[in-house]
Amino acid sequence: MAESIVVSGLVAKHREIAGRIDHHCKEIERLGAGLAHLDATLKLFAPDLDLRSLKPKVHRQRNVVFRPGEVPRFILDALREAVRPLTGHALAEQAVALKGLDSSPEALRAVQKSLTTALKSIAGKGTITEGPMQGQARTWRIA
Q1: 3 state SS for the chain
Q2: Which tens digits make up the pLDDT trace of 81-126?
Q3: Are residues 93 and 111 in contact, defined by beta-carbon separation less than 8 angstroms?
Q4: Given the DSSP bridges, would you call strands 86-87 and 139-142 parallel, antiparallel or unpaired?
């Protein structure tokens, strides 16, 4: 009996993934046709343009937890109020609590990923610096 439940679950998952792959393949074909039309139109207006020199625009997935610009403000506020340097994980825990999200490991990991990217960007500007290591974790503080 347990085997049939496992098999039916795996079959359902297989069908779901195959359907998603089929959907995305059709979307790729549609986008490819649109790009071919754009390339032909560009060649009409700029015959000397080398289309290989056009780099694709990077598509970034929008963060659904934070509004644009909210992550750096949150980080700087948290580090200003902290009495000691904070790890990315500690910042993620604060953010999850502030936003009222569930504190599951997956949610923490997703928030920490957003924060880590922002931390590196802010550190590149010189606003924050790395503090002492806390075990294997990097800590951050206001410069």
Answers
A1: CHHHHHHHHHHHHHHHHHHHHHHHHHHHHHHHHHHHHHHHHHHHHCCCCCHHHCCCCCCCCCCCCCCCCHHHHHHHHHHHHCCCCEEHHHHHHHHHHHHCCCCCHHHHHHHHHHHHHHHHHHHHCCCEEECCCECCECEEEEC
A2: 999 999 999 999 999 998 888 888 888 888 888 899 899 999 999 9
A3: no
A4: antiparallel
Q: Could you read off the pLDDT of 52-86 as tens digits, one per residue? A: 999 999 887 777 788 888 999 999 999 999 999 99
- Other CB atoms within 10 Å distance of the CB of residue 116: 16
d(CA 116, CA 88): 6
User: Looking at residue 79, what is its pLDDT?
Assistant: 94
- Kindly list the domain boundaries of the chain, sorted by start residue: 2-53, 70-142
Query: Which one is the CATH code of 70-142: 3.40.830.10, 1.10.10.10, 1.25.40.10, 3.40.605.10?
Result: 1.10.10.10
